[in-house]
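To whoever picks this up:

The parser on our side crashed when reading a file containing two proteins. I've narrowed it down to the boundary between the first structure block and the second sequence. Both blocks are reproduced below exactly, byte for byte. First block:
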Amino acid sequence: MPKMRKKGDLPSKICASCGLPFNWRKKWARDWDNVRYCSDRCKRTKVETKS
């Protein structure tokens, strides 16, 4: 069995839409590098970035 991790030891990111921090989830394990939004709602209401 794999070692257990504490929730505080999991990696986190800042949501590109709402700006709030969110933690790693098992369903994002394969694609963590490409995850940008904390939820489907934030994904739908993307904030336009000016370049």
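<<boundary where parser fails>>
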Amino acid sequence: MRVASTGGRLVVAAGDGWVDVEKASDGRFSSDPQAVYGRWDEFVDWARDEVDDSSAQQVEVFDPPVPRPRQLIAIGLNYRDHANEAKLDIPEYPVVFGKFASSLVGHGATVVLPSDGIDWEVELVVVIGREGHQIPVEKAWDHVAGLTVGQDLSWRAVQLRGPAPQFSLGKSYPGFSPLGPAVVTVDELPDKDDLAISCALNGETLQHGRTKDLIFPVAELISRLSQALTLYPGDLIYTGTPEGVGAGRNPMRFLGPGQLVSSIERVGELTINLVNGL
């Protein structure tokens, strides 16, 4: 099952189009895309039994499928090759920071580059569907609503400026957290722990990897995070990026105007349009 948001309204995939959830459910479920994660199990049961494509329509532009997460959690250095290109040790514990929700945009958005030093980071994003604290690894996937595609755009000069790094600020400028186009339930994935992940600028591949190479896989991340945090329905976890970022190249390379496409096998393709704001 795939759910998304367009025009601020929750839609679910049916056939070759999308069905408005509030209308199809006769008001049982709200049009608010964020609200559905608090009723995720009930919603999934309804959608699988009741939704058909008779009222499906085409959608071209998508909002973030999770527009107002209570917590937007991000993980750094979660692929060995990325840690190596950053010339940093392989982490013993997850490297955790936050992004701010005001940076979220959806598929098809235009993002203004505030500097010529903005880097790219394609990421698998986990959407939490059940509240949990101190979740065992073996139960972690039970707390997942689905997966989606994300970008963790990063202004490196802000992220790394002293006297202490400013990860959250450097990664939270407007449009720096593209997300979508849809949240995909894991039953659609033959192997939820091994997905091809890549991004390309104007057709040139910049990153390519597989999520099986995560140092801390999804289930372990959820369990470790939940030892400290309570995870809530609709929370987002950006799980880290594979090698190939601009700051890891010699010479360094950063984003310019064009179309940035982030892809995850069977999950989706997220496109944003970059324009200079200099």
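After patching the parser it read the second block fine. The chain has a mean pLDDT of 97. The chain has two domains: 2-55, 72-276.
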